[in-house]
Amino acid sequence: MEFSTADLCDAFPERLQLVEPLFREFGGIERFAGPIETLQVFEDNSLVRSTLESEGQGRVLVVDGGRSLRRALVGGRLATLAHANGWNGLVVNGAVRDWAELRRVPIGIRALNTSPWPSAKKGVGQRGGNLRFAGVMFQPGHFLYADEDGILLADQRLIT
What we know:
Layout: H1 5-11, E1 16-18, E2 24-25, E3 32-40, H2 46-52, E4 60-64, E5 72-74, H3 76-84, E6 89-96, H4 99-102, E7 108-114, E8 126-127, E9 131-133, E10 136-138, E11 143-147, E12 150-154
Parallel strand pairs: 3-4, 4-6, 5-6, 6-7
Antiparallel strand pairs: 1-12, 2-7, 3-8, 3-11, 9-10, 11-12
Protein backbone atom coordinates (compact mmCIF):
# COMPACT_ATOMS: atom_id res chain seq x y z
CA MET A 1 0.00 0.00 0.00
CA GLU A 2 1.54 3.28 -1.11
CA PHE A 3 0.70 6.41 0.90
CA SER A 4 2.22 9.20 2.90
CA THR A 5 0.64 10.52 6.06
CA ALA A 6 1.23 14.09 4.82
CA ASP A 7 -0.78 13.37 1.66
CA LEU A 8 -3.53 11.71 3.71
CA CYS A 9 -3.76 14.82 5.91
CA ASP A 10 -4.09 17.00 2.81
CA ALA A 11 -6.77 14.77 1.27
CA PHE A 12 -8.80 13.80 4.36
CA PRO A 13 -8.22 16.42 7.11
CA GLU A 14 -11.69 16.02 8.63
CA ARG A 15 -11.48 12.22 8.80
CA LEU A 16 -8.13 11.79 10.56
CA GLN A 17 -6.79 11.95 14.08
CA LEU A 18 -3.09 12.56 14.74
CA VAL A 19 -1.47 10.27 17.30
CA GLU A 20 0.84 12.35 19.51
CA PRO A 21 4.45 11.94 18.32
CA LEU A 22 5.65 9.89 21.28
CA PHE A 23 6.72 6.75 19.45
CA ARG A 24 10.05 5.68 17.99
CA GLU A 25 10.54 3.39 14.98
CA PHE A 26 11.96 -0.06 15.67
CA GLY A 27 10.80 -2.39 12.90
CA GLY A 28 12.31 -3.18 9.53
CA ILE A 29 9.79 -1.08 7.61
CA GLU A 30 8.80 2.51 8.30
CA ARG A 31 5.46 2.68 6.46
CA PHE A 32 2.56 0.42 7.42
CA ALA A 33 -1.21 0.51 7.65
CA GLY A 34 -4.17 -1.67 8.47
CA PRO A 35 -7.25 -2.21 10.59
CA ILE A 36 -6.60 -2.10 14.32
CA GLU A 37 -6.75 -4.95 16.86
CA THR A 38 -6.33 -3.83 20.48
CA LEU A 39 -4.81 -5.25 23.66
CA GLN A 40 -4.46 -3.82 27.14
CA VAL A 41 -1.69 -5.36 29.24
CA PHE A 42 0.78 -4.29 31.90
CA GLU A 43 4.30 -5.71 31.94
CA ASP A 44 2.95 -9.08 30.75
CA ASN A 45 3.13 -10.14 27.10
CA SER A 46 1.30 -13.47 27.28
CA LEU A 47 -1.74 -12.02 25.50
CA VAL A 48 0.53 -10.29 22.96
CA ARG A 49 2.04 -13.65 22.03
CA SER A 50 -1.28 -15.48 21.77
CA THR A 51 -2.70 -12.69 19.61
CA LEU A 52 0.30 -12.65 17.28
CA GLU A 53 0.00 -16.45 16.93
CA SER A 54 -3.31 -15.82 15.13
CA GLU A 55 -3.63 -14.80 11.49
CA GLY A 56 -2.96 -11.08 11.24
CA GLN A 57 -4.70 -10.60 7.87
CA GLY A 58 -2.94 -7.26 7.40
CA ARG A 59 -4.01 -5.85 10.76
CA VAL A 60 -2.04 -3.61 13.12
CA LEU A 61 -1.85 -4.68 16.76
CA VAL A 62 -2.11 -1.74 19.15
CA VAL A 63 -0.91 -2.63 22.65
CA ASP A 64 -1.55 -0.35 25.59
CA GLY A 65 1.17 -1.31 28.02
CA GLY A 66 0.39 1.53 30.40
CA ARG A 67 3.51 3.46 29.29
CA SER A 68 5.69 1.10 31.34
CA LEU A 69 9.33 1.10 30.29
CA ARG A 70 10.39 -1.47 32.88
CA ARG A 71 9.54 -4.63 30.89
CA ALA A 72 9.55 -5.18 27.13
CA LEU A 73 6.30 -6.39 25.60
CA VAL A 74 7.71 -7.27 22.16
CA GLY A 75 11.12 -8.61 21.12
CA GLY A 76 12.71 -10.25 18.13
CA ARG A 77 10.84 -13.55 18.41
CA LEU A 78 7.41 -11.94 18.66
CA ALA A 79 8.16 -9.55 15.79
CA THR A 80 9.20 -12.51 13.63
CA LEU A 81 6.02 -14.37 14.65
CA ALA A 82 3.90 -11.32 13.80
CA HIS A 83 5.47 -11.00 10.36
CA ALA A 84 5.11 -14.75 9.65
CA ASN A 85 1.41 -14.59 10.55
CA GLY A 86 0.60 -11.62 8.33
CA TRP A 87 0.46 -8.71 10.78
CA ASN A 88 1.36 -5.37 9.14
CA GLY A 89 2.54 -3.61 12.26
CA LEU A 90 2.63 -3.11 16.01
CA VAL A 91 2.18 0.02 18.10
CA VAL A 92 3.27 -0.47 21.70
CA ASN A 93 2.50 2.06 24.41
CA GLY A 94 5.43 0.68 26.35
CA ALA A 95 8.82 -0.89 25.70
CA VAL A 96 10.30 -3.36 23.22
CA ARG A 97 13.64 -5.15 23.24
CA ASP A 98 16.10 -6.78 20.83
CA TRP A 99 16.38 -3.54 18.84
CA ALA A 100 18.97 -4.95 16.40
CA GLU A 101 16.73 -7.97 15.68
CA LEU A 102 13.61 -5.83 15.28
CA ARG A 103 15.30 -3.76 12.55
CA ARG A 104 15.79 -6.95 10.49
CA VAL A 105 12.14 -8.06 10.59
CA PRO A 106 10.05 -6.59 7.73
CA ILE A 107 7.23 -5.30 9.91
CA GLY A 108 6.36 -1.83 11.19
CA ILE A 109 6.95 -1.36 14.91
CA ARG A 110 6.46 1.77 16.99
CA ALA A 111 7.08 1.88 20.73
CA LEU A 112 8.04 4.39 23.39
CA ASN A 113 11.52 2.99 24.02
CA THR A 114 13.53 -0.14 24.74
CA SER A 115 14.14 -2.19 27.87
CA PRO A 116 16.26 -5.33 28.07
CA TRP A 117 14.07 -6.76 30.83
CA PRO A 118 11.59 -9.46 29.70
CA SER A 119 7.91 -9.26 30.46
CA ALA A 120 6.03 -11.33 33.00
CA LYS A 121 4.09 -14.39 31.78
CA LYS A 122 0.96 -14.43 33.95
CA GLY A 123 -1.66 -14.29 31.18
CA VAL A 124 -3.13 -11.03 32.45
CA GLY A 125 -4.71 -8.52 30.09
CA GLN A 126 -7.70 -7.71 27.92
CA ARG A 127 -8.24 -8.19 24.19
CA GLY A 128 -10.48 -5.88 22.20
CA GLY A 129 -12.11 -2.73 23.41
CA ASN A 130 -11.21 0.91 23.05
CA LEU A 131 -7.86 2.23 24.22
CA ARG A 132 -7.11 5.87 25.00
CA PHE A 133 -3.52 7.09 24.90
CA ALA A 134 -1.32 9.46 22.89
CA GLY A 135 -4.22 11.89 22.56
CA VAL A 136 -6.54 9.58 20.61
CA MET A 137 -8.96 6.68 20.98
CA PHE A 138 -7.82 3.45 19.31
CA GLN A 139 -10.86 1.39 18.35
CA PRO A 140 -10.83 -2.13 16.93
CA GLY A 141 -11.56 -2.08 13.22
CA HIS A 142 -10.52 1.54 12.72
CA PHE A 143 -7.53 2.10 10.41
CA LEU A 144 -4.03 3.13 11.35
CA TYR A 145 -1.56 4.70 8.91
CA ALA A 146 2.09 5.15 9.95
CA ASP A 147 5.16 6.45 8.17
CA GLU A 148 8.24 8.54 8.86
CA ASP A 149 6.11 11.63 9.56
CA GLY A 150 3.76 10.14 12.12
CA ILE A 151 0.77 7.96 12.94
CA LEU A 152 -2.80 8.70 11.88
CA LEU A 153 -6.14 7.10 12.70
CA ALA A 154 -9.29 6.97 10.59
CA ASP A 155 -12.65 5.35 11.29
CA GLN A 156 -12.50 3.54 7.93
CA ARG A 157 -10.09 2.62 5.14
CA LEU A 158 -9.16 5.77 3.19
CA ILE A 159 -7.04 4.27 0.41
CA THR A 160 -6.69 0.86 -1.24
